[in-house]
Amino acid sequence: MPSGGDNGRHRVAVFVRNGVLSFELGIVHRIFGQARTTSGAALYEVLTCAPEPGVVSTDADFDIAVALGPEALSRADTVVVPGSQLDFEPGDAFADSSTVLALLNIRSDTRIASVCSGSFLLAAAGLLDGRRATTHWRSSDRFRTLFPKVEFNPDVLYTDDDGVLTSAGAAAGIDLCLHIVRTDHGAAVANEVARGTVVPPHRSGGQAQYIRFPKQAPELSLTGRARQWALANLHRPLTLQELAKQESTSTRTFTRRFREEIGTTPGQWLTRRRIERACELLERTTLSIDDIANSAGFGTAGTLRLHFRSELGVSPRTYRSTFGGNTGRPTARG
Fold first, then answer.
1. Structural domain contains residue 1
2. Strand ranges for 93-161 from DSSP E
3. By the 8 A CB rule, do 277 and 298 touch?
4. Relative to the CA of 78, which of 106, 237, 300, 318 has its CA 20 to 30 Å away?
5. Model pTM?
6. Which contiguous run of DSSP H or E holds residue 184?
7. How far apart are CA 277 and CA 296, in angstroms?
8. Does any domain span residue 2?
């Protein structure tokens, strides 16, 4: 993907409308603004634009002054559309012709993403037809009715369909932006951003939006001790019985509590943590693929390659050549 910034940085344009959800606007600036090379250079330039320059209202008790209009979209490498409180009110405020036309005028190679109800605007512009997409679960029925051509999934945190991305409710925008940083610059950069923002470094797009079963009270200590212990022992085989033992419970109860708290199975969670460990070792060390497979708990290079291709779509060697050093430019369309 070409860089739209004169300074060589990847340019992100945040397209806001009246009633913009201020938390979501802040998320985009925070996550991309924190991404740095190992030498401390900023990797993204983040701009805010609107259908017309001027004052834009927010969902909070303040307005924002936006200096840039829709012309900024044509110079962006990535466009992000936060939600607006007007999207949730009666009528089709998201389908305002000026905002829709602005989105249709972006370059064909521009990556585009939405946070929460911003997906309504992408859908109204026809950008989600035939693609996988999601939005806040409370708006699922309305979205399905209005946009039957979209391959809608109401349960996931975010979707990525060939450079067109959508996320669920506000906090899922953090997961989406971290996913983009991880795709562009690798796990080490994304993890540093997550650490600086004090958020989990990775929740997969397929993780459930919300937990349908009631959580245990915090004082009952669901699975935190077991997960902490597992992270300290990723280099060796781990059994469900060992994990359950850390919480002094049966495997059946532990598995149920794990699903309730994390939204996935212990086995799936472990595999993802092992892949993340392997990614960081590939990016930051010169260890052999065999040594990395052992350090991450996969045992053999063949098993590591199998999981890498399944989860990331590339081989460990290709991943290392792409992200080793973490000073490279974003790949095409993320």
1. no
2. 111-114, 132-133, 151-152, 158-161
3. no
4. 318
5. 0.70
6. helix 172-185
7. 6
8. no
Q: Tell whether 259 and 272 lie within a shared domain.
A: no
Of the candidates 329, 313, 330, 210, which has an alpha carbon nearest to the alpha carbon of residue 263? Answer: 210
- Kindly report, residue by residue over 55-82, the tens digit of the pLDDT: 999 999 899 999 999 999 999 999 999 9
Contacts of 56 (CB under 8 A, 6+ apart): 16, 17, 18, 20, 50, 63, 64, 65, 66
Domain of residue 244, residue span: 218-263
Q: Is residue 183 part of a domain?
A: yes
Dist CA 114 CA 143 (whole Å): 14
The two tokens of residue 172 are: 């899922």
Cα torsion through 121, 127, 128, 133, rounded to 10: -60
- Residue 281 corresponds to which amino acid? L
pLDDT, tens only, 99-129: 898 888 898 899 999 999 999 999 999 999 9
Same domain, 249 and 273: no
Inter-residue contact 243 to 266 (CB < 8 Å): yes
Task: Provide the domain count of the chain.
Answer: 3
